[in-house]
Description:
By secondary structure, the protein is of the alpha+beta class. It has two domains: 22-181, CATH 3.30.1330.10; 188-369, Phosphoribosyl-aminoimidazole Synthetase, Chain A, domain 2. The protein contains twelve helices and twelve strands. It has a six-stranded mixed β-sheet with strand order 8-10-7-11-9-12. A four-stranded mixed β-sheet has the order 3-6-4-5. It starts with 24 loop residues before the first helix and ends in a 12-residue tail after the last strand.
Amino acid sequence: MTDVAAAPTPAARRPLTYKDSGVDIDAGDEVVDRIKTLLKRTHGPRVMGQHGAFAGMFRLDYNQKLFKRNYKDPVLVGCTDGVGTKVMLAAERRIYDTVGIDCVAMNVNDLIVQGAEPLFFLDYLGLSKLDPDATTKMIEGVAKGCEIAGCALIGGECAEMPDIYKPGDFDIAGFCVGVVELSRVVDAARVKKGDVVIGLRSSGVHSNGYSLVRRIIKDAGLDLDRVYPELGPDPLWKVLLEPTRIYAKPIVKLLSAYKKKKVVTGMAHITGGGLPGNLSRALGPKVDAVLDTSAWAPNPIFPFLQQHGNVDRDEMFRVFNMGIGYTIIVRPAFSDAVCAKLAKLGEAPVVIGEITKGTGEVRCERAAELAIAPRGQ
């Protein structure tokens, strides 16, 4: 008869730890300590509380001596968003900071559409493993985005979940709160026939449509490490990971320049759904936006993707921003002045269309197809 070794008694086993299950508390504490300086760079006198507290605190500015800006009838504006499947490309290339900027951009660009000033931001990271170097890079990108946007990064969460995420995978999302004076809320009811549509350029694909982008790369056999001359000097992966532009500071400054006159009647952040799906959200039921697509040249990445993916033109405009990341609708008498102010703020505004009678739709047409002729820039 063969002897069978007895199973070790519970007392003989090494004590099981949380780290054995894939979650490293010490690594989390290390990240919290590392990012203290990153967060502090985004803080102003409105931020209260200590680093590492259970929640961040932000003071609304009613103190005339302390704050320059005061709200008589403040409305809080909140939004939340993520970066989508762009994070898969970032994870594959081990580039972690750019998607942090994307995360901030996707939130604050939505928030300012309502006329709000971004106040504070919180991020959420879901990780397979909390690597202090990589995680700090992600939060470094978030902090940089907050600096660009002019809002405070007051907290966040890093969730290490090896049973949910495969090794190397991660996700990033955020939450932003802003404030706007009730009388200054941008509402679709203000948009009228004859108003002018101004476009602000995008930096590229931004953070929408990456499921289609990845499919095109796969089907066309594109090499992410290759430099395609039509896209400039950078390899394809770097072009695709270019961060989303953040429009917060120029838009907030533009709106503050017109404290009494309601010159800006509508705005739209051009994300998933493209110009037709997003600009329509800024329109009432009795007007259309008619755009002249010959008024601007799309970033080179868009014709590149269209050609290699054999994607229909209408589908391109329905999925991607096509070179226009943000739109501003203004009264016709002020379009030149608004463009001049935006140019001084570092933008390159382009008049891309105008508002007509309609049913709340957006028509992306070439100049030769237009029944009306939008004024050029």
